[in-house]
Design brief:
The protein is mainly alpha-helical. The protein has 15 helices and no strands.
Length: about 300
Amino acid sequence: MNEIEVTILSIVIMIGLGYFLKRIDFLSEKDIDPFNKIVMYILLPCMIFHALYGADLSYIAKLGILPFIILASSMVTGIVSYFILRQFKLDNITLWSVLVTVMIANTAFMGYPVTLGIFGQEGFLRAIFCDIATLCIFLILSFILILKFGGTVRTAVRKITFFPPLWAVILGLCFNILNIPIGPVIENTVNYLGQGAIPLIMIALGLSIDFSAIQRSKNMIAFTSVMKLLFFPLIAFVVASQLGLVNLQYKISIVEAAMPSGMMSLLLAITYKLDYELTSDCILINTVISLITLPLIIMLV
């Protein structure tokens, strides 16, 4: 069993655990919101801070182009998807529930182990830089969704200013660049908390699954699978080729772009009261489909 299969099966098992716990009435959909708050305000900031605090930023001049490729691919995919979805005359909640899944790639939880297993430490370092773009996209979408569903520009600026993941980025970079020690106890604590983010998101995703709704959402699921697993990496290929990237930079940028929808899509859907069941259905199905598409794309690059 290769690294891709191991990673995807681990995801499916954790999602399945959440669904099983709902089926036996140990947990329910009411638990999704508190889970989301724990992830958004505690675990995710710890994960982000720890990744940036330990990153080797000496390569930033050389590898700084990688976040741009993921960011550009996400924006192009999002804009094209937006205009296509507008033709279906969807309401705003449904439209944005789909858009967040095509714009956010699973560059960390899937991207890290896949790139590390196939390309080694050099590939893993480049994956970290790609994930910086995913975080930027997450913050941009948060700002847009606040404006769309939560109030004025002033409200959006205030909420983003006090947004814990944003401060995790700022502090992680500052502590790294200024070489500020945090001590082994705090570092371990932050690391342990950060490691809990993805499993808790996966369980929340499992709690939100409604298999009867998957049939009703099949058109949107098919759309997000095509746009995220095929169109997104195609744009990354075009951008990377035009910029003249070669070797690992070229390979990692395309492989990271080919990752399925990121779990932070579900955080956005829950936080801003979107159709999180639709979002979770799209994430689940295109994660499973990526078991086929990812190996093919890796072989091509």
